[in-house]
Amino acid sequence: MGENEASLPNTSLQGKKMAYQKVHADQRAPGHSQYLDNDDLQATALDLEWDMEKELEESGFDQFQLDSAENQNLGHSETVDLNLDSIQPATSPKGRFQRLQEESDYITHYTRSAPKSNRCNFCHLLKILCTATILFIFGILIGYYVHTNCPSDAPSSGTVDPQLYQEILKTIQAEDIKKSFRNLVQLYKNEDDTEISKKIKTQWTSLGLEDVQFVNYSVLLNLPGPSPSTVTLSSSGQCFHPNGQPCSEEARKDSNQDLLYSYAAYSAKGTLKAEVIDVSYGMADDLKRIRKIKNVTNQIALLKLGKLPLLYKLSSLEKAGFGGVLLYIDPCDLPKTVNPSHDTFMVSLNPGGDPSTPGYPSVDGSFRQSRSNLTSLLVQPISASLVAKLISSPKARTKNDACSPLELPNNEVRVISMQVQTVTKLKTVTNVVGYVMGLTSPDRYIIVGSHHHTAHSYNGQEWASSTAIITAFIRALMSKVKRGWRPDRTIVFCSWGGTAFGNIGSYEWGEDFKKVLQKNVVAYISLHSPIRGNSSLYPVASPSLQQLVVEKNNFNCTRRAQCPETNISSIQIQGDADYFINHLGVPIVQFAYEDIKTLEGPSFLSEALFSTRATKIEEMDPSFNLHETITKLSGEVILQIANEPVLPFNALDIALEVQNNLKGDQPNIHQLLAMASRLRESAELFQSDEMRPANDPKERAPIRIRMLNDILQDMEKSFLVKQVPPGFYRNILYHLDEKTSRFSILIEAWEHCKPLASNETLQEAVSEVLNSINSAQVYFKAGLDVFKSVLDGKN
């Protein structure tokens, strides 16, 4: 793979200068100087203290007690007796993670029994004072020597300054993001994406990011053919391009990229002549109704995008026997201000990664499977105007502006011939990866992901917003790093390639470094398509991070005139966070602006990739203030996760989310409810018994914090299931959309078993959920047991 070897900081995989070393300094007891490790110095100090104790025994001071804070023997923290009284967990409906206040009953007392005698002697007292004076002078000399000859490293952020984040983020300016955006847009006109990757690498390096590298993978891409696909009406012989324009030589010669790239990547190719059958959204009820009245074998389905994942609907159509699919977006599903009648779009049928190396990375020597198409269906996206011509419907909206959904009359027959042309080629996809090394926990990564334009893909401009935002944050961060500060944990910045074809760059990188990432990744911050509208901030976060997002958003709102209530949910999203959610079980956060009308419409419309022009993005955010807000919100979350001694994750919120997913009238959930109750009990104990003491600075022992953080970062891994329907998330904590609040695999299984006498599918889904909840409950309980055994070992 060559260039890929240095794409992760300090992992043994690379064998380069980035190899990590274990950091043991944070495991020393509080007060232990790293410069007093010399055996002779420590032995001398201990001998002097022992002589002093012998003098005390001889002099016989009654009830003499060494002060725990000042005279505790260095290196003897194992004698500490931790008083860990349990507390009640947070009682907010969301299980709010709070920084707990110090309380008197949580103060740890470092005490030692005092030597006793019958009476004191003035001479002995004088000797004691002399000895103490000598020790005091000796300590001053050591401190002076250490300070003079051993300058300390850059200051750690273990004690977090509340103003630190704002000091970094205040340098982010909308005008700088706007300039960066415009510069990037000028580069995309080059068909080859090499120039864009080089520009990003050069800019990140100039800002001071460490070891910025290209990580290249040779992957199988499904590209459009030499000419646009066509749809021909058999009754009239009229031929149309996907945008509804008539076929002609002039159109073929002058066909722009928008027309050429209106296709479904990894569709089957060829020609099919058959009857068009309107299946609406392709829901289970739609297919059940149609199959009762028509033979659908080798027919062409007229399918609306939305409501369910496209891959799931295509799988259902393929099982039903259809031969082809005409895919479109109904104008009634979009805001009135949007007129998509002649707009064409691209979709990818790739669930993720290089199709020729499923489940393993595309490195040199890997076996490549022959998979030019990922479905037997001929799939062609078409515009709403072409659908109107097929069904002979002139307008979608009536005189009173009420929208009339497009649909083919049941009593009419339409026979068409569809031709799909695609070409499959091996191409290079490039990721750009750089990092800022953490100071105290360099082997823990916060990954920040954007994406850049990939050659041979649709020329949308949201990638320029994504890249401009990540670059703006890097600039602000590195200005602070250059002055000597570093985050506690490593921050890895990634600009992914091949996103439009199925998140190929991120999947291949994830598969390439899977073993390292499974152990070390703490969180993923997504900057995918941040500006999709301008009316509503739309954050998505894992259950364990929702409270952090609420706090950051509320703080940001106090600085703005308008502060609408923000709805934060854990739902399926588009973009490169997919691999980290579904294969690594990593908590994620994504901020984006949307049109509120779009949010009210069907879900999964964002699976369509339109040619969003740069002028459109500047129309939505002319001042680039929305870009600035996304940068600062994302940046503050990144900094807090990278810098807080205790990860700001909420264990109890996961348990509450599980219980909420089981509300309502659902079949076969009695066992699930009982298991969810046990999970909540364990999460409450974990949050009260372990997270509260860890937030008390007096009990923040490094080994305890490390153990706690290891548990927190792996909480969601228990909810990864092996088998899910196509297009559904393997991480079952995520819903299909914000309108549903139940486990998606249970909803699908219930719908699937309705027309069947057997409910085996439902039983399998219930078993998957039950095992996940049980695994999480055991995980929290095991964490409690580990802490208890460690503490018992110290007592």
Automatic annotation (TrEMBL):
Keywords: Membrane, Signal-anchor, Transmembrane, Transmembrane helix
Subcellular location: Membrane
Principal location: membrane
Residue ranges annotated for the Peptidase M28 domain, each copy included: 431-595
Membrane spanning residue stretches: 125-146
Lipid bilayer topology: Single-pass type II membrane protein
Matches recorded under Gene3D superfamilies: 3.50.30.30, Transferrin receptor-like, dimerisation domain, Zn peptidases
One Gene Ontology term, aspect cellular component: membrane
Pfam families reported for this sequence: Peptidase_M28
Family stated for the protein in its record: Belongs to the peptidase M28 family. M28B subfamily.
Name of the protein this chain belongs to: N-acetylated alpha-linked acidic dipeptidase like 2
UniProt source species: Pongo abelii (Sumatran orangutan)
Gene symbol of the encoding locus: NAALADL2
